[in-house]
């Protein structure tokens, strides 16, 4: 008996890791890093972060939120129909395969799955697979409360991830301006994987896996199902720096999630508000994405070339530039007392005193500050700064 239980547990774990969404997400994370490195090397001949950074941060940034979500879902008894969960996963898979992460918000997946389930009920009510049929879905059993609340909670998590885990990984690259010069823009393309535990009513799962985790409440049986939830984000910062733009954008997404949760809870008394909550979530998230994109596309470049000095586009981690506190958008006016106006002059001025470097820098507010740093043999020969050229 114990061997049988162990085999079912191992099978449950294998089903999670063999989930197409999980496997495709791993490949997508690798591809994001690969294309980012190619783009950075095309602009600066060096990459800012290793190519495996996106894969490395795929779960660690989001695991805490996944655990909290699982506790809220199971503690509050938010049950979802297994068919809806399959459609939700299918929507995620399609969205990430397009590589267009502006569509990779969970509220879009939830709305698509809900609409898909309604269409199945209307046009394929007799369809049956492994004991499940669209005709058995009961919207009056709380689905119109559960779905918008789940969508809202996922939106809140998305907002926190955008606020806290995008700015530091924004990738700079050079773009030609209307005047034929080059300015730096910053692209954040992130993907996060959340292993979330869902509650599914009925004993359909245990019919195929007898020892699958299950419990009963009254006369109803429930099963726990771990599902990989994917949240994607893509946005270019041009007129604002990433550490200014993305936290504001993340806060707006989180507040949208709060509104969706509150309206979704109101569906307890008026079911139509469940649909209203989903519509609010989709429209607000779409409007926010479009609004930010338009403003950034029309705004002036925050890291544009200047007539005097070298403008910083990025700073390599653990480099002398990072230790000196240099930041994108700042302008190096002089090195070791020598004025500089391009990358070659910057390099030549550093070599004047290879052991000790003194900089005159104009910060983002236009104030002049002086800084110095001891350089060692293994330090980057250009201070580790990527410059607009």
What distance lies between the first and last C-alpha atoms, to the nearest angstrom?
Answer: 69 Å
Taken together, the total number of domains comes to 2
The 3D shape can be described as elongated
Number of helices: 11
Which stretches are poorly predicted, pLDDT < 50 over at least 5 residues? none
User: Considering DSSP H and I runs of 4 or more, what fraction of the residues is helical?
Assistant: 40-55%
Beta strand count: 10
| Binned strand content | 15-25%
Major beta-sheet overview: 6 strands, antiparallel
Structural class by SSE content: alpha+beta
Secondary-structure element string: HHHHHHHEEEEHHEHEEHEEE
Describe it.
The protein has two domains: 2-298, no CATH class; 310-387, Pdz3 Domain. The chain is built from eleven helices and ten strands. Strands 5, 6, 7, 8, 9 and 10 form a six-stranded antiparallel sheet that branches. It has a four-stranded antiparallel sheet with strand order 1-2-4-3, with helices on both faces. It is elongated, with a radius of gyration of 25 Å. Strand 1 and strand 2 (182-201) form a beta hairpin. With 389 residues, it is an alpha+beta fold. It has helices at 2-17, 20-44, 53-56, 63-76, 82-97, 106-123, 143-165, 242-266, 272-298, 320-323, 343-352; strands spanning 171-176, 182-201, 214-217, 220-237, 310-315, 331-335, 338-339, 356-362, 368-374, 385-387.
